[in-house]
Design brief:
33% helix; 21 helices; alpha/beta; 598 residues; five-stranded antiparallel β-sheet
C-alpha cells in the first residue's frame, strides 16, 4: 500500500484520526478544530471530518494545508516516510514485502581518479543556466578528459555514477557512459526534503537540476526514456517511493518520453501520478529559453492525471447534455419514421440498437425498407444486409415505395436508383453471413462512407443456431458496442415465435431466441397485420354477416399496426400502437386510406 492509498484510508476515518493526532480539539459541524499544529485548543486549524473533503486540513493562521498523512508528519515532527510507516501501523496495514530484485550482486562505483569540483565544466553548466546552488545540491563533479560526473546518492552513499562529456562524438551525438554493474537508482534523491510528500521525476539529470533552479525538488531516471529494464530503478527505489502521495512525471515532450511516463505511472500507481506538459521539450530547454517560474508552476498545477479513459467527470458531458435539451439543428440526433403521427413521439436515436419483430409474412422487412428510404430522404446513409432476399428485390420494393406505383417506368427506376445511390448501400450476401464478417463490413462502411443506419435482416441469418443463446447475446452485445462507438443505429430483424394463431400481436415475450435480447436493445418494434380485418373483409365480401359491422365499417379499420413495445429514450411517450393502412400497388404503409403517405 503506497502513501496515496494510506492517505485515502485515513480520510475514511478522518474523525478518529483527527482526534488521535489532535486530542485537544472539538467538533464544529463537519470540522475538528484546534489552535495550531501544536494541538492547543482553538479554532485556527480545521480538519474536515466528513463529506467529500474529509481528510483535508487547513491552518488559517499560517496558510498551511494538506491531507491527513501530511498532518501526521507535521504534528509528529517526523519525516514523510516515518509518518507513512506510523500511519500504516495505526490502520493495521502490514508492511509490504520488499519488491523482488534481481539476484545480481551490484558493485560499488569507484571514485574517478582526479575527481574535482566542476571548475572547468562550469562554463557548460552555467551555459545551461545551472547555478552553484544546484551544482552543490546534486554534488556534481568533473573528471579528466572533460567529463561531467553525476553521482547517484542514497542515504549518503554513492551507488551509481554517470558521466557526460563536454564534447560530442564525430556524428554529433552526446558521449555518455556509466559505471558498470552498479545499482540503478534515481539521481538527486538527497535533494528531496524528508517532509515533502510530492515528487517530480524527470528524464535527465540536467532537467532535474533545472527544476531545482525553479524551486521544485526533483530527481531523474538513470537511463533515459524507455520501458522494461530501463525502469529497473523502480524496484531499487520502491520503499523510498512508497511514501510520496503525488508523483509528477516531467518527461521529455516526445514519443519516447511520453511512452516512458505511461510505463512508469503504471508501475508506481496511476492514482498518484500526474503528467506534466512543459512549453518546451524538457525542463532544461525551458530554463535556457528563459521560461519564467510562474509558467512552470502553472504546468505543474495543470498536470493531468492518468485517469482511465472510461472515467470522466460529469462536467465533461455538458455539451452533450445541452444538445439533448437544445439540439443545434432543432431536432435531436437520429431519424424520423416516415409517418407524421410518429413525429415528436417515436424517434430512433443515434447510438442505439432496435429489434424489429413480427409474425412471418406480416411485413416487417417491407416496412423497415420504407423506414430506410425515409432515412435516405433525410440525408442519412444506410447499409442493408438483407440475407433473406436478393438485393434487386429489396431495391425494387424501395423503388416502388419511392415513386408510389407498382410498375415504375425505366426512366423512373434509373432516376430513383441514381438518387438512392448516394445514401443506400447493400451488404451483398444471400443466405447465412458470418456475424464477425458482417460487423467488419459495417465498421468499414462507417469509417469509409460515414454510414450510420444499418439493417441486419435477420438474426436467423448470422450463423448462430436457434438455441445458441450465449452466441445470440454476444452478437447483440457486439451490435450495441458498435452502435455506441460509431454513434450509429442498428436495426435488427428478429422473428417472432409461433403462437396459437395470427390474431394477437406479438410483443417482448414473443421474440424468438434468448430472452436477454429484448433486455439488451434500446427499442422493440413490432409489425402486425390486422388479420382480424382481413378475415372480416373476406366474410362480408362473400355475402356473410358480422353482427354490428358493415363492409364500410370493417374497411375503415387499419390494415396494420406498428407497435412500439419498448423505447429506452422516451419510454411511455413513445410506446404504444400506431395504426397504418397498406397501399398494395407501391407496397407502402400509409397513414390515410386514400393512399397518401401522411
Amino acid at each position: 500500500m503506497d502513501a496515496a492509498q494510506v492517505s485515502n484510508c485515513l480520510s475514511n476515518q478522518a474523525g478518529d484520526v483527527a482526534r488521535y493526532l489532535l486530542p485537544n480539539g472539538k467538533t464544529q459541524g463537519r470540522e475538528w478544530c484546534v489552535g495550531s499544529l501544536n494541538g492547543e485548543a482553538g479554532e485556527s486549524l480545521k480538519v474536515c471530518i466528513s463529506g467529500g473533503k474529509a481528510g483535508v486540513w487547513s491552518d488559517f493562521a499560517s496558510g498551511d494545508a494538506g491531507d491527513l498523512l501530511e498532518l501526521w508528519c507535521r504534528v509528529r515532527g517526523i519525516s514523510c516516510s516515518e509518518a507513512f510507516r506510523e500511519a500504516k501501523a495505526y490502520l493495521g496495514v502490514a508492511d509490504d514485502k520488499k519488491r523482488p530484485q534481481k539476484s545480481t550482486a551490484f558493485q560499488k562505483p569507484t571514485k574517478p581518479k582526479g575527481l574535482t569540483a566542476p571548475k572547468s565544466v562550469l562554463g557548460y553548466l552555467n551555459g545551461r543556466k545551472l547555478t552553484e546552488s544546484s551544482i552543490k545540491a546534486y554534488k556534481i563533479g568533473e573528471s579528466p578528459g572533460g567529463w561531467i560526473v553525476f553521482p547517484f546518492i542514497r542515504d549518503g552513499e554513492t551507488v551509481y555514477i554517470k558521466y557526460l562529456n563536454l564534447k560530442r562524438d564525430d556524428k554529433g551525438k552526446k558521449r555518455i557512459k556509466a559505471e558498470s554493474n552498479c545499482e540503478p537508482i534515481l539521481f538527486g534523491m538527497q535533494t528531496i526534503p524528508t517532509t515533502q510528500n510530492s515528487l517530480a521525476i524527470t528524464e535527465g539529470e540536467l532537467d532535474a537540476m533545472s527544476l531545482h533552479e525553479y524551486g521544485i525538488s526533483a530527481v531523474s531516471v538513470p537511463n533515459g526514456a524507455g520501458s522494461g529494464n530501463k525502469n529497473a530503478w523502480i524496484d531499487h527505489c520502491w520503499e523510498w517511493l512508497e511514501s510520496f502521495t503525488e508523483i509528477y512525471l516531467c518527461m521529455d515532450n516526445d514519443d519516447p518520453g511520453q511512452e516512458a511516463a505511461i510505463d512508469i505511472a503504471n508501475r508506481l500507481g496511476l492514482h498518484r501520478c500526474k503528467l506534466v506538459t512543459l512549453p518546451k521539450k524538457d525542463a532544461n530547454e525551458c530554463l535556457t529559453a528563459g521560461v519564467g517560474g510562474e509558467e512552470i508552476f502553472k504546468c505543474f498545477e495543470d498536470a493531468r492525471t492518468f485517469d482511465p479513459e472510461e472515467l470522466r467527470r460529469a462536467g465533461s458531458y455538458t455539451d452533450q447534455v445541452l444538445e439533448r435539451f437544445y439540439p443545434t439543428e432543432g431536432r435531436r440526433p437520429g431519424i424520423d419514421l416516415p409517418w407524421r403521427k410518429t413525429h415528436d413521439r417515436l424517434r430512433l436515436y443515434d447510438g442505439e440498437v432496435s429489434i424489429w419483430t413480427g409474425i412471418n409474412g406480416h411485413g416487417k422487412s417491407l416496412l423497415l425498407g420504407q423506414v430506410m428510404l425515409g432515412a435516405a430522404k433525410q440525408g442519412h446513409s444506410c447499409c442493408i444486409a438483407s440475407m433473406e432476399m436478393k438485393p434487386e428485390k429489396t431495391l425494387a420494393r424501395m423503388v416502388q415505395q419511392a415513386v408510389r406505383t407498382d410498375k415504375p417506368t425505366q426512366d423512373a427506376i434509373r432516376k430513383t436508383l441514381n438518387q438512392l445511390n448516394e445514401n443506400v448501400w447493400i451488404f451483398d450476401v444471400v443466405g447465412t453471413a458470418k456475424h464477425d464478417r458482417l460487423l467488419k463490413v459495417f465498421d468499414y462502411a462507417y469509417r469509409r462512407y460515414g454510414i450510420r443506419q444499418f439493417v441486419v435482416d435477420s438474426l436467423a441469418k448470422v450463423g448462430l443456431d436457434e438455441d445458441d443463446y450465449n452466441g445470440q447475446k454476444a452478437f447483440v452485445d457486439a451490435l450495441g458496442d458498435f452502435a455506441k462507438s460509431t454513434n450509429s443505429h442498428v436495426h435488427l430483424v428478429a422473428h417472432a415465435r409461433k403462437g396459437m394463431d395470427e390474431f394477437s400481436a406479438p410483443g417482448k415475450m414473443s421474440v424468438k431466441g434468448t430472452g436477454a435480447l429484448t433486455d439488451m436493445v434500446d427499442n422493440l418494434l413490432c409489425v402486425y397485420r390486422n388479420k382480424a380485418k382481413e378475415r372480416d373483409m373476406a366474410i362480408l365480401e362473400n355475402g356473410g354477416n358480422i353482427k354490428g359491422e358493415t363492409l364500410e365499417d370493417v374497411r375503415s379499420k387499419f390494415d396494420a399496426f406498428l407497435i412500439c413495445d419498448k423505447h429506452r429514450e422516451d419510454g411511455a411517450d413513445a410506446e404504444g400502437g400506431y395504426g397504418l393502412y397498406f397501399d398494395r400497388k407501391p407496397q407502402s404503409f400509409v397513414e390515410k386510406q386514400s393512399g397518401e403517405l401522411c
